[in-house]
Amino acid sequence: MYSKLGVIAAGSVAVLQCGVPAQAQEAGEAVPTVVQVTGQVLGKGEARANSVIDQAVIAEQPAGLDPLKLLARVPGMQVSSSDALTGSFSMRLSMRGFNKEQIGISIDGIPNGSTLSNGGTMPNRLLDPANLVRVDASQTAGDLGTPSNQALGGYIDFKTRDPSRERGGEVELSTGSFGYQRGFVRVDTGKSASGTSAYLDYSHEYVRTWPGDESGRNTRRHIDARVLQDLGGGSSLRATVSYNKFSDNDYDAVALLAASSKLYKATFYGDPTTDGLTDHWTGNPAIDQNYRGTRGINSEDTLMHIDWTQRFGDSGKLTVKPYWHKQDGNGWFYVPYVQLPSNGLVYSPVAAGGKPTAVVQECYQNQYQRTASGALIPVSAISYPSGSSSASLATAGCPAAAKYAMNPVAQWGAREASTRRSDNAIDRKGALAEVSSMLGEYQRIRVGGWVERTTRDKDRNWFAVTDPIVSGAFKDSALYSITQDRHYSSNTAMAYAQDKVSLMDNRLQLDLGATYQRFKEDYSSPVEFNGVRTLEVSSRLLPKLAALYRVNDDWEVFASGSKNFSAIPDTVFEGTAAVDSKNGIKPETSINKDIGVRWTSDNGYGAALTAYKIDYRDRISIQNGNPNGDIFSRDATTTFANQGGISSQGVELTLRASGASYELYANASYNDAHYVGDTPAEGIKANDPVLGAPRRSAFAEATWKPSEAWRLTANAHYVGEAAGTYGDLPNTVITGGPAVYPRQYMPAYTLVGLNFSYKPSGSLFGYGSRTEFAVNVDNLFDRRYLGGVGAELTSSSPLTTGRYFLGSPRTFYATMRVKF
């Protein structure tokens, strides 16, 4: 009655057919589509918590949607950015109490690496959404062997489609709110007599930022090419190249309440329609530092990878995946001052046993005097005429100016300004390999490994603005100071093995596996310290155990447990941070457990219920020695320590019903994520809720299909309130602010979306063989809400708290897709 799970091709994506006789699949017998889709959406056949977003759901989304935003429909996940389509700096992702830097991500099994917006890679840069066919999201720990240095709380794999067997092409044209434009074209060669097929595609996107006069500009150009060679007998060879170039003026963080307004340009309760950035140039650097066009991110990424799959014997399979990823990018920021090194040199390496060269800030010319050697010294007289207090200097946009002796106001010169540009470069080379085979009829063995060599550079360069009255433009020759010159070199090695056993006439499936991982990194920054710092850690043995029991064709229960590992982040190396912390810091680990039950019926109905518990241990926390130090200079001293952790537990319910003319999908989650130990330097007390992790969330979607041509979908997404600050904190930073900052909560919200599509029969004007028109509306009722908290952007208490990003407003999109 029960048989081994089969895998068949559905378009270009492998789809698990659960609860279906293997003989029927191998013979190509018809399998009910609703059962297939319902099963994979609920993760049927997996011995752990797992959800699948299939091609049908992906096709309903707005063209060009960031693939991370698809995860909003996965139970236990919350995704948001200040833009309805995408977002880099403002992109927030939370899953069971973990953020995006604690979740593993891959594209076609190739590791994405760090998901930092600047100095890392967001997954949308390595694929085009038009080629996305499937997303596998594991809320627990992912499949054994998933390649990541940061997967403490889950794993996500984005799968892209292969070349078509038939010669043809596709065109996708989109327009929408805020000037959105997207064009996509793809050409497929079809499969030749020798078994070779290939495709080439190109896309271009443009959209303006939405607040104010929409002065920000986001552009993206993307190219993909793939060649697939059929080697026969189920063996194949794929070669893929992806190139992406984008420029992004993103959104700024805001405060929640007016009490925090001294730290931020805008407050949510004050005006939820703005982040406080300006749209017009004034010529006053104190104001123009908030001009949206003076801040942003550029990035150019190239990813190349090969996927060789070789079948051998009756059941053996070897896969080898070498890859190379290169990125060059920068983030820029305009400031109303010039930050000069005190020795007058652009580049000042630290001598052995010495300290970094100090820097001084000046907002006006003639503020300081230079000695014959070029050193800067304050004027001897200190005079603050009436109205020229240190507070008024800060209001004028001159950070830290009160530390230095000032000329009288009458002697102040012209305003000065700089562009602080952080350049970054990444070079990742690696390979994955795995061999698997059946041992007898009921046992399958997998053995594999992953190696990666990464080199990264991060520089912080200061350029004098040519004429602040006119614009923020500068020349490369105007470089006057380098305050960071950071170089990283890391090596990752991972090995894993698994024994998957079927017992009791295939009713019971046991997955017994373990992973071992080693990570080593060297770090140098000649202008911040002398020498090279090295850190090497290993995961020890990480067991990963799971069991699946099939009660009958409709019901199954599962349970899994795993220990996970995250390599020590770069922050413990950087600047002065590593001086007191490089010895004794342990890598963060988590123990993930889940248990669940799934039910699917022959008529397309299904349900899944999962309960889980996560213990996140050895959390690396901030211990600031100088919280008021200038983090863009060299005087901030930050150390780190392993203190406490996070406990996360909850339940997730998923429901699905599918028929000939309708589809219903819903999920609800309850997540209790809290800190388990006190972290005094961060203001955290045991049992404080984890920032940005709502306790309650839900998603519901209904689709009506009156005919093959028409489709209407409506959905609603509820996110409960989530903590935005750690707790009641005394005010030690803001003059004139409240004595105590009480814990803040981001308010709950519900968003409603609509999708309408029409696929006329026949060709379009005799040219297109398949045509589709689609209209999407995101946030239909224009709800104003906070999408997430920027906890990782801050460095000290209470500055660590209360940084939020606005959610995206109501947005319309219209798309035409034509396949030839």
From TrEMBL:
Its main location: membrane. One of its GO terms (cellular component) is cell outer membrane. It is found in: Cell outer membrane. Residues 49-139 form the TonB-dependent receptor plug domain. Keywords: Cell outer membrane, Ion transport, Iron, Iron transport, Membrane, Receptor, Signal, TonB box, Transmembrane, Transmembrane beta strand, Transport. It is a multi-pass membrane protein. Coiled coil: none annotated. SUPFAM superfamilies: Porins. GO terms for molecular function: siderophore uptake transmembrane transporter activity. Residues 439-780 form the TonB-dependent receptor-like beta-barrel domain. It holds the Pfam family TonB_dep_Rec_b-barrel. Residues 1-24 form the signal peptide. It comes from the Bacteria. Belongs to the TonB-dependent receptor family. This is TonB-dependent receptor. It comes from Duganella alba.
